[in-house]
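Annotated sample (chain length 106).
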Amino acid sequence: MTRFCKVFAIVILFAASSAFAAAEERWQTLPEPAAMPKPDQSGYAPVNGIQMYYAVFGAGDPVLLIHGGLGHADIWASQVATFSKTHKVIVADSRGHGRSTRTEQT
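Output written by the structure step:
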């Protein structure tokens, strides 16, 4: 292989690895959620030794939105804004997430 080809191959590999690093960083960053509408009702419910945060929006047939993973209730802001026009939407923060408390065991 000529010296030019080796240098060219190294430059291409460097550029490709930089692109993968940038893609990984972007993938690991989540956009900020939309602002949550003002709830019609919110508070804390005692559930198995913790205080579980909940909020209620709108009126109609109920829809319960439960977050997953490391999320919290506010990730549903866009869905709440839409569904609360025709439904009663209930969101809650799971044990130890968002505004809900947790016990010493969890």
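Annotation: The chain is about 30% helix and 25% strand.
Annotation: Helices lie at 3-27, 77-83.
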